[in-house]
Amino acid sequence: MKTTSAPNVLAWALISLCSANAFADQQFEARQAAAKEALKEVISEITARQKEAVEANGLDGAMKVCQEIAPGVLNRASIKTGWRITRVGTRARNPRTGLSDEWEREGLEQFGRRVIEGESLQGMTRAGVTDYGNGTKQFRFMQAIGTQDACLSCHGPKEKLSSAWKKASAAYPHDRAVDYRVGDIRGAFSIIQPMDVPLNP
């Protein structure tokens, strides 16, 4: 009977481990690329709608896009991909929505440190894998949202908020999402992909 020596067994084990790690790395990179592509489409649509709204109604026009149109864009993207695609903020406007979980809070804090260190918010991302419980893994991805001029009518200094926003603010009695300045990290797009579900071809 032919036997396999211990060194050969060890060598095959190392090869198998390296192959598994390489495959995992490829899967991680593929999921990261897919997440970036999905957000590229989302951001493109929201930006286009904001531009139209601002041209038609000034900076106040961006308010309706944030409140009503952007959630619909994210919902359609979630249905299309089978992932959870949302927005989270560094300070919540509505405590019932937009609240970050622990991984997202860590990501927002990390983004803030990276901005302080001089990194551009443009394209700033974070990716990782978390344990959902019962051995289920989730791929997590975040992309930073910076504060732009169009954001200030609703999210800028309290004394400079637009009259339109002041009328609408009654619906948000616990609003904390104000006093931002252009260039501040205001939040992030967040994606959760179940690792046991293959990526769409």
In short:
By secondary structure, the protein is an alpha+beta fold. Strands 1-4-3-2 form a 4-stranded antiparallel β-sheet, with helices on both faces.
Please tell me about this protein's structure.
The protein has helices at residues 6-57, 61-81, 102-116, 152-155, 163-168; strands at residues 84-89, 125-133, 136-146, 185-194. It is globular, with a radius of gyration of 22 Å. It has a four-stranded antiparallel β-sheet with strand order 1-4-3-2, sandwiched between helices. Helix content is 49%, strand content 18%. It is built from five helices and four strands; from the N terminus they run H-H-E-H-E-E-H-H-E. The longest helix is centred in the N-terminal third of the chain and has 52 residues, at 6-57. By secondary structure, the protein is an alpha+beta fold. The protein starts with 5 loop residues before the first helix and ends in a 7-residue tail after the last strand. Strand 2 and strand 3 form a beta hairpin.
